[in-house]
Amino acid sequence: MSTFTFQKHLSRRAMLRGAGITLGLPLLEAMTPALAAVKESKQAKRFVGVSMSLGLHNPNLVPEGAGRDYKPSRYLKSIQDLRNDFTVVSGSSHPGVTGGHTAEGSIYSACPNARGATSRNTISLDQLMAKQLGHETRFPSLVLNTNSQTSPSYTENGSMIPAENSAMRLFTRLFVNDNPAEQKRQAELIRSGRSVMDIVGAEAKSLQRELGAGDRDKLDAWFTSVRDLEQRLALNEAWTHKPKPKVSLQPPTKIPRDNEVAVDGIFLDIIHMALATDSTRFVTLHITGNSVQGIEGVDESYHSLSHHGMDEEKLAQLAIVEQGVINQWGDFLRKLKTDKLLDETMVLLTSNLGNASAHDNKNMPVLFAGGGFKHGQHLAFDQKNNYPLPNLYLGALQRLGLEEDKFATSTGTMSGLETA
Amino acid sequence: MKHLWLLLLCSPAAFAALPAIQPFLDQNCMDCHDAEMKKGGLDLAALSTDGADAAALKKWVRVFDRVAAGEMPPPKKKQQPSVDAMQDFMAALGGDLVKKYNAQKGTVLRRLNRQEYQNTINDLLGVKVSVIDSLPEDGRAQGFDNIGEALSISGIQMLRYMQAAELALNAALFADQWPEKTAERATLESDRNKDNIGKHWLKRDDGAIVVFNNGGFPSTVIPNLRAKASGTYKLRVTGYGYQIEEPVVFALITGSFNFRNADNVTHSYHELPVGKPGTVEVTLHLDQGKGIWISAQGLNGPDGHSPVKDGPANYPGEGLALMSVELEGPFITEWPPRGQTMLLGDARLREVMPDKPWMRGKYGYKPVFTADSADPVGDSRKLLPAFVTAAFRRPVTTTDVEPFVKLFDAEFAEGRDFLVAMRTAAIAVLCSPEFLFLKEPAGRLNDHQLATRLSYFLTRSAPDAELLAAKLTQPEVLRTQTERLLKSATLDRFVTDFTDGWLNLREIEFTTPDKQLYPEYDGLLLDSMLRETRGFITELFRSNLGVANIVHSDFAMLNSRMARHYGIPGISGLDLRKVKLPPDSHRGGVLTQASVMKVSANGTNTSPVVRGIFVMDRILGMEPPPPPPGVPGVEPDIRGANTLRELLDKHRDMESCNGCHRVIDPPGFALESYDVIGGWRDRFRSIDKGDQVNLKIEGRRVRYRLGPPVDAAGELPDGAKFANLADFQKLLLADEDRVTRSITEKLLTFAAGRAMGFSDRAEIARLVAASKAKGHGMRDLIHAVVQSEVFRSK
């Protein structure tokens, strides 16, 4: 492993400059020594996953040639200035994951599913990270969606975490201090919430005596949930009284509902600020909006375009939308790079669909940036016999200093992806 | 139960029946299904025999079924085992599977799903809050979202429950006096619209404002008309169709109509007559501050014209002439709301004046209340036990109530007033596992547990007082109460939630049909197709019509929009009605309904495989196995050269694919005659290739072309041939028991909140036989399900 290039404990001023923050702010947790017992060798400390519910058209994405000398594909031309900051992976997917759109739940959990069977999801990558390292920031993680409240982020009980889908509300939660009355209400809610949790935890204990063993799993999940919320409330209690960071970014006022790419950009701008102010370190953004008719040259809905059925006109319009998403992702990387955050932030762009038109979950699109890995390459795995993508996830966990040796169906860490 | 579980844990993970069936397997199966050959991905030597391995158990069931059906060993290629050997094998394997499934059957502790939660909390408190969207989406199994096993819980979910409970309680504690009923009348004329009139819109001598735009700009949200308080309102819209031949249709949309809240909801569609004014009256619930948007639909004008260009007076296009909109209400039948009385008893709410009294008049001001009680502690002892009883759906003990009383005391001791202390205690009650879960200990359910199960099955909410008092363990009483619930207005809830899961209707908006290929698709059609199917199923239950109607019926529930879509003449008006179908209509039965055809297609094309699976799984109750790993999907091509069927044929030529696809695909072939929005087709629509069509829809020439002809013929695995859907329906009806078995299984799954397993087969077979004796009536079937062993036991 190479030396640590970025100061672990940010100087306040450096951060203010980098993030474009206009006013001074009280000490943030990031500027005090980290609490977690994490190995010193860690290089990355953040993870951002951007996922597209409608896939990325593989012929436009996957470059010709493997390794460092790959020829940029149509979609990757616009982010060649970042060539050495990301890796493009082809021919990989989650083993045993099928089901077309329904595989969304497995994007970060890689949990194999069996159709028709009652299958329970397993913890998603971001939540596993947040569970172990998320306590240092105001928000252990952010689970976001450009449109709906569904998310690929799952708890260890296999519960989907509902996503924040309003950019305005997200901005407010991150950067706008509540008025004193609201602060009081929040504090009150937290206080009474903790008393409520005391009671409902005890209630379940008496229930346990009445119910059979078959119900034990459910009650266990109940206890975990109660404990989880208790901890969260306790942490929140401390945060309610601390002012939120002030940022120069203007709050979004109007969401361009007919332009999913622009909405994606608005969210990424806020995520950038959330990372820069160390409000959170683990973020997922799921892109699900269907309206793209506000984009020049596009007059059909996104979902309809994804079912292009090889029609040229549809493919042309789809390419406009998908290029837009890639460009937004590139812009986001550039901002992190300017702020010197990219080396310690892992940024993924992927989808559960490798071929949206055929609802195929193989050959998932994968762009992986930052985090101090040796990038600038095309890792070309077998399109027919896919390489397990969970290997990338395991590498990401280890990069954070977490001592995991397996994630979902991983068989090791991704071959060819090395740390810089 | 407990003992069985222990047994399972302690016993070695061996397949008990294995020694008995091993010779049979060796002789008849292992040639192809050993570690080396693994035909169809099945390696019997490696297949786990552990009863706790659900996936392996499922495969064994499939082994049983395929041998029982005579499909394995393959009759044409392999020597067949003797009848005796077969029977011994099935007795041994079947007996073992029953044992294994029995050990784990029983509804797993079931949480209220978010729909049930919302219904329950509203019914309990006498309010009408919408909390579904703030609760995490529920997990599903077997298509249903009320299956205990799949309903998980998390810390976030607990937090959301707390917030939802607070919201609902506040809605019950929102005002200290009966909200006054008012009647207000408004038109489109207002300051905001003064520039639109004369430019986009026409003001006529009779006072009507004619709008020519469908939704969009300029906004036709009715100015200065808002609900003063939450409650039920009567809305009367008066107007007429202008320069239009058919009655003019509008969508009634409610919402906050500001950019902060994207909370618009399309409530319903209506129409106004042509030429002379008519009035539409709608009863609806409105939350405080919500307004009304009358959004015209399907207005057209000739090319090259626009109201702005021509001037509204000279513009020749179609318009909606709006004369007035009246809003009367709120009609409140219960005051104070149930929840307020439950929480406060005789104590009354009293508004606390803000420090700055002028704030009260400001927009968005939220009043703060307190409640005065002469004896707060005494009141809490009276009120909390009753509240806990209502919330827990059973009589409660002092021990049950104690924690909440203690919480009240602690709050009160810390200086919170009576109202706040009671509310905190109530939030705790509503977050208790006794409220959020349906508590069902092992074995037969008692009266209260049955009341709860029955109520959530048929009303999707908590049992009412009559149900809770009934001796439901007595079959006759159970029957009477079931009959009562089937007659109540809440039947709609049951039909909606059941069909959402059974026919996947909840996903109907997942894809939007391609505008170029399906220009006739509109919001009214979507709304009408959902109402058609729900109305149809309701009619089957209400009139006790036979199960066969699901496959084919001689009637349909239609309004004018559906009738137009189906090409059935002579139906006007948007209300649904029972229509006798003409013989050549291509309609009748669930399979021909547009909603089902839409939900089993995507926005551009249909796949016989997807629809085949839909029919197999949802109508015939057979779950096709997933494709073996590594098989790519067939890439659809809508350019018009090949049909998907032709592309699939290549696939089907391969022996390994054909084994399943010859079973899965035929129902899908039969449905090829229905396009992605359920319209009838003789030829596929395409974008590039094919013949141009000389047809105008909504005033515009259609841009799609007509490609290859539809081939709806096929052959069932047993060799029976069909030429089209009508033939296929006849083949299905030859085995009515099979459809009944499937529907029974779906009803049981939804009713009991658990997946039916191998060991439930005997009980289901008994119900089907009983149903047959009674003529397979759908209402009778509900009774049979409720009286079944499955329903009456955990």
Question: Count of DSSP helices of chain B?
Answer: 28
Strand content of chain B: 5-15%
Mean pLDDT of chain B: 91
Largest interface: A-B, 76 and 84 residues
Helix content of chain A: 25-40%
Biggest sheet features of chain A: 7 strands, mixed
Notes on the structure:
- The complex is a heterodimer of chains A (420) and B (794).
- Chain A has 420 residues and is α/β, with parallel strands linked by helices.
- Chain A contains 10 helices and 9 strands.
- Chain A has helices at residues 12-19, 58-61, 125-133, 167-175, 180-210, 216-240, 260-276, 302-306, 312-338, 390-399; strands at 46-52, 86-90, 92-93, 142-145, 282-287, 345-351, 366-370, 377-380, 387-388.
- The longest helix of chain A has 31 residues, at 180-210.
- Chain A is globular, with a radius of gyration of 22 Å.
- Chain A starts with 11 loop residues before the first helix and ends in a 21-residue tail after the last helix.
- In chain A, 54% of the residues are buried.
- By secondary structure, chain B is an alpha+beta fold.
- In chain B, 40% of the residues lie in helices and 14% in strands.
- In chain B, strands 2, 3, 4, 6, 9 and 11 form a 6-stranded antiparallel sheet that branches. Chain B has a 4-stranded antiparallel sheet with strand order 5-10-7-8, with no helix packed on it.
- In chain B, helix 16 (491-502) crosses helix 17.
- The longest helix of chain B is centred in the N-terminal third of the chain and has 22 residues, at 83-104.
- Chain B contains 28 helices and 23 strands.
Features:
heterodimer; A: alpha/beta; 7-stranded mixed beta sheet; 10 helices; 10% strand; globular; disordered N terminus; B: 794 residues; alpha+beta; 6-stranded antiparallel beta sheet; 4-stranded antiparallel beta sheet; 23 strands; 14% strand
SSE blueprint and pairings:
The complex is a heterodimer of chains A (420) and B (794).
Chain A lengths: L11 H8 L26 E7 L5 H4 L24 E5 L1 E2 L31 H9 L8 E4 L21 H9 L4 H31 L5 H25 L19 H17 L5 E6 L14 H5 L5 H27 L6 E7 L14 E5 L6 E4 L6 E2 L1 H10 L21
Parallel strand pairs in A: 1-5, 1-6, 2-8, 3-9, 4-5
Antiparallel strand pairs in A: 2-7, 6-7
Chain B lengths: L1 H9 L7 H11 L25 H15 L14 H22 L5 E2 L2 H12 L29 H18 L9 E5 L15 E2 L5 E3 L9 E6 L4 E12 L5 E8 L9 E8 L5 E9 L4 E7 L9 H4 L8 E13 L6 H7 L3 E5 L15 E5 L3 H17 L5 H16 L4 H13 L2 H4 E2 L8 H12 L6 H5 L5 H13 L3 H12 L20 H20 L5 H4 L3 E4 L1 H7 L10 E4 L13 H6 L8 H12 L24 H9 L2 H16 L12 E4 L4 E2 L3 E2 L2 E2 L3 E5 L4 E2 L5 E2 L2 H9 L2 H17 L8 H13 L4 H10 L1 H4 L2
Antiparallel strand pairs in B: 1-14, 2-11, 3-4, 4-11, 5-10, 6-9, 6-11, 7-8, 7-10, 12-13, 15-16, 17-21, 18-21, 19-20, 22-23
Helix pairs in contact in B: 2-4, 3-4, 6-11, 9-10, 9-11, 10-11, 16-17, 21-23, 25-26, 25-27
